[in-house]
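We include the entry.

. . .
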Amino acid sequence: MEEALEKALAGEGYFAFPGLLLVRGPDALSFLQGQVTRDLRRLSGPMGALFLNHRGQIEEAATVFSHPEGFLLAPWGTLEGLKARLKRYIVFDQVELLELPLYRRLHADGREEVTEGGEGAYPLELYPLYTLLKGLPLLSDIRGELPQSVGLLHLVDYGKGCYVGQEIMARLEGKEVHHCLVGLRGLSPAQEAPFDLLLEGRTVGEAKRVMETPFGVLGLAVMRKEVPLGAVVEGGGGRFLLEPLPFKEATWSGRRSSG
């Protein structure tokens, strides 16, 4: 696992996630345009997209691929969760949601593609550690948050037209939000996230993910911006040092450190 982690952090190899959703039918484009934060009329390659609720908070996320019959959605969470989210909004739309036994291949250098198999991929249990070190949130880390608060504003296309949550995004355009995503370095043991983080007795953020790593306890948190990096916060029975993302260990090389 150590060798695989080192290669992934160096941008080599790929992860493969099973299960894609085909959205097809006469209304596939208009239906999805009313759901995602991206303008699918500009789709020319793999495109990350968010699915918001009416308060502008993230519910689901996926990579969108073009398909001869419509669009392929590769969920960042579960296929069941994404499908359920879409089905809630189908009323008179002529669309069909079809699960396909395909894979989203996510290369460590950032490229994405659709494949029929996952042979040669890194073990999926390595992905949470890889993303943590790189400062990349999982869907479970960002669900319920505004895109602006977790560094995902680049996945919102302003001016594309109406979609679920668009009114809130329009109100916030050009305005500064009060939270951001930061790294946590554990200074003492803590319980499993999520839990509130406090500074001098005041709640200033929430730990979204905390895990034991080869480099000690690390985590991700959504924190109020006025709390500076380098501050020590408390929560979940433990203490944490706030650090910038990605973590310095994202450039780690096991071979160099042991040489």
